[in-house]
């Protein structure tokens, strides 16, 4: 089976997109297909696969499958790229529209200037209670400076839900951290019943931070939209930064605006990398047509 796809990225956070608006999605187990197609050595390579689908409650619907096959709730960069695609390819005329995700409705606004395309995602405000993140503990307790025991050390972390659960750490230098070694330790810590994205954050000044991210389901990535939001939110909440916050990640910069309550706004450039077709192995196919998954439940950045 041949699958037509589009590759897009936002600050290096890259996804394989399948247009389910113009054509019916093929008979594919998307959980298995994502693990195969995301392999950077044997297939297209990506942080995951995103389906662009019709919605009954918004203008479009997004389903995201991480590189490990788990299905995500939301992805800030992923939904922004989706917004850039549907607008630039004439699937919608308005520059403001909505996208349904597993975490709720996301507002999209497109800004076009010549060949440059920037997209802003308007997301629900951050959730701080332990039961909302979720983190183990009383539902009413705010996830502020929770001490975790990691490899014999007590390390303060800050929990927040921004579409997905996040674990934020403030460090002197994110590039001095062995993120591939420590990221999975925090991600899979017992305090996070649904695992967590992990952000290592360095505050530069009142409007700038540097961040490296270990994403649940995808590992070390060049950027993460909801991770940028989680980092900026806790920097603002702790009084270390003021909105807007520019978040510098290995793949590029993102801007986060948050006034201390209410919606979050994530803005940055989106880019189309290439289009093509790829053969989907038999083990990832289904016997009947349509949008099917067979996924493991999880979430993304």
Characterise the protein shown here.
This protein is mostly beta strands. The chain has 2 domains: 2-124 and 271-284, Diaminopimelate Epimerase, Chain A, domain 1; 146-259, Diaminopimelate Epimerase, Chain A, domain 1 (Roll), CATH 3.10.310.10. It has 4 helices and 21 strands. α3 (179-187) links the parallel β12 and β13 (197-205). The longest helix is centred in the N-terminal third of the chain and has 13 residues, at 76-88. It is globular. Mean pLDDT is 92; it is low at 293-301.
Concise description?
This protein has 301 residues and is mainly β. The strands form 2 sheets. The chain has a 19-stranded mixed beta sheet that branches. Strands 3-20 form a two-stranded parallel ribbon.
Features:
Diaminopimelate Epimerase, Chain A, domain 1, 301 residues, 43% strand, 19-stranded mixed β-sheet, 4 helices, single chain, mainly beta, 2 domains, two-stranded parallel sheet, 14% helix
N-to-C terminal Cα separation, in Å? 29 Å
The best one-word shape is: globular
Main sheet makeup: 19 strands, mixed
- What proportion of the residues form beta strands (DSSP E)? 35-45%
Going by helix content, strand content and strand pairing, the class is mainly beta
- Level-1 CATH class name of the largest domain: Alpha Beta
The CATH topology label of the largest domain is Diaminopimelate Epimerase, Chain A, domain 1
What is the chain-wise order of helices and strands? EEEHEEEHEEEEEEHEEEHEEEEEE
Give the overall average pLDDT: 92
Beta strand count: 21
CATH fourth-tier homologous superfamily of the largest domain = Diaminopimelate Epimerase, Chain A, domain 1
The level of helicity is: 10-25%
Low-confidence blocks of residues: 293-301
- The radius of gyration is 18 Å
- Domains, number: 2
| CATH architectural group of the largest domain | Roll
